[in-house]
Amino acid sequence: MILSMTGFGKAEKVYNNKKITAEVKSLNSKQLDFGVRTPACHRAIEMQLRNLVSAALMRGKIDLLVYCEPIEGAPSGTINLPMLKQYKAQIEEMAEQLGLPQPSDWYATLLRMPDALKTDAKATEADEQELDVVKEVVTLATEQLIAFRRQEGARLAAFFEEKIAAIQALLDEVPRYEEPRIHKIKGRILDALAKIKEVDYDKNRFEQELIYYIEKLDITEEKIRLQNHLKYFLETMHGEEPGQGKKLGFISQEIGREVNTMGSKANQADLQNLVVRMKDHLEQIKEQVLNVL
Mind listing the pLDDT tens digit for each residue in 261-293? Predict the structure, then answer.
C-alpha cells in the first residue's frame, strides 16, 4: 500500500506541571529535508528526536516542533523581593531629590520592573524522565502523521487505479482503428500514384516498399509494452514495502514513452485522439505521483 508524503501529527502529555506538546508536519520532497525546533532544556536529545522521526518517515520536507507550557495554576516563577526592595528605595530617593510624588500604585510600578520575577533554574531544567516523556510525545505525534499518510495514500491509490483503468480502456480501443488505418494509408498511396500520369513502376518492388513502410507504422510492440507497464504500475502500487513513489515515477515515464511513440506512428485522426486522451490521464498520474512516499 502506498503512503502519501503529506501529513500532520500532534500529541501532548503533562509532566511535572508542564504540558509537553509535539507537532510533526510533512510535505512532499525528493529527499529528506528535516527541520526541528525544541526548547533549550531539550536540546540534549535533539539528534535522537531527529533520528527517531527520520527513520519512521523516510522522505519528505519534515518539520518537528516541541514546546512546553506551564499548566494552568502552576507557578512559573517567584517574586524577587530583594530586587523589588532595591527598586522601591531607589524610586523613593529619586522622588525626594527631584521633588516628584511617589507612585500611587506601588504594585503596578514595581512588578513592571526588570527581574521582578525570578524563575527556579532547577524547574526549567529537564531531568531524564522528562526527556523520556518528550521522546514518547514525539513518537505519538509521528504515529499520528503516519496514520494520516496512510489515509491519504488510500485516496491516491484509488485515484491511480481509476486513471490506469482509463488508460487501459483507451488501449483496448486501439485495435478498432488499426486495420482500417492500414487500408487508408495504402489507399492514399495508390491514389497518389494513380494521379501521376505516364509513370511506370515495378509493382512487386512497390509492394515490398509498402510493406516495409507499414511495418514502420506498426504499434504492436508499443501496445504490448504499454500493457506491461500499466500492470507493473498497479503491482508496484500494491506492494507491501513503503517508499514506492520514485519507482512509480519511473514507470509513469515509461508509460509516457510508449504513448508518445504510438502517437508519432498513429498517422490516423481517431487513433491520435485516443493517444491525446491517454496523455491527459497520464499527466494527472504524474502530478499525484510526486506526493507518494
Answer: 988 887 778 888 999 999 999 999 999 999 998
Nearest partner of 149 among 1, 2, 4, judged by Cα: 4
On the question of pLDDT at 120 being above 60, the answer is no
CA trace torsion 275, 4, 245, 140 (10° rounding): -170
Cβ atoms 13, 133 nearer than 8 A: yes
CB within 8 A of 16, min separation 6: which ones? 129, 130
β strands within the chain, DSSP E: 7-15, 18-27, 32-37, 60-70, 78-79, 117-118
Total length of the chain: 293
CA distance 236 to 182: 36
Average pLDDT, the chain: 85
Q: For residues 21 and 176, what is the distance between their CA atoms, to the nearest angstrom?
A: 62
The secondary element (H helix, E strand) that includes residue 147 is helix 128-195
C-alpha cell at 73: 495554576
263 with 272: CB under 8 angstroms?
yes
* Complete domains list, the chain, with CATH: 7-74+126-149 (3.30.230), 78-118 (no CATH), 153-289 (1.20.120)
Q: 21 or 204: whose pLDDT is higher?
A: 21
Distance, in Å, from the CA atom of 52 to the CA atom of 36, rounded to the nearest integer, reads 12
The helix (H) or strand (E) run that includes residue 134 is helix 128-195
- Cross-sheet strand order for the sheet of 60-70: 7-15, 18-27, 60-70, 32-37
140, 27 Cβ separation under 8 angstroms: no
